[in-house]
Amino acid sequence: QVHLAESGGGSVQAGGSLRLSCQFTGDTFRDKRMGWFRQAPGKEREGVAIISAPGLTKTYADSARGRFTISRDNAKNTVWLQMDGLKPDDTATYFCAAKIGGTWPGWDEYNYWGQGTQVTVSS
């Protein structure tokens, strides 16, 4: 059974950095496309960044491009989201997600989800 466990959230001031981690267990990690999503209070969940199974292809939401970096290590079954230059608008619960194949970017196709980690950015 697939299990995704996020960690690394917290409270930071605007301009600060956080690095989120997601540990994947229960299935073969290296054949999964992985993504980070977020949901702010009162808003719909949105995609932040996704990475291909080998880690060679990455796509970012406009809000994340240039500030966030997604990466993975298939030997460690882990995906990360490095977030720099954080803004108050980045405040949200961040979720790690996984899927096999499908379309690219296929934001709506992710079907394995973690419980989320809270990120709060103060001005």
Describe this structure in words.
0% of the residues lie in helices and 50% in strands. It has no helices and 11 strands. The strands form 2 sheets. Strands 2, 4, 5, 6, 9, 10 and 11 form a 7-stranded mixed sheet that branches. It has a 4-stranded antiparallel sheet with strand order 1-3-8-7, with no helix packed on it. The radius of gyration is 13 Å and the shape is globular.
Query: What structural class do you assign from the helix and strand content?
Result: mainly beta
Helix/strand order, N-terminal first: EEEEEEEEEEE
Q: What characteristic shape results from the CA principal axes?
A: globular
The fraction of residues in strands falls at over 45%
Could you outline the blueprint of secondary structure elements for this entry?
Elements: E1 3-7, E2 10-13, E3 18-25, E4 33-39, E5 46-51, E6 58-60, E7 68-73, E8 78-83, E9 92-99, E10 112-113, E11 117-122
Parallel strand pairs: 2-11
Antiparallel strand pairs: 1-3, 3-8, 4-5, 4-9, 5-6, 7-8, 9-10, 9-11
Concise structural overview:
With 123 residues, the chain is mainly beta.
Quickly list its features:
123 residues; seven-stranded mixed beta sheet; four-stranded antiparallel beta sheet; 0% helix
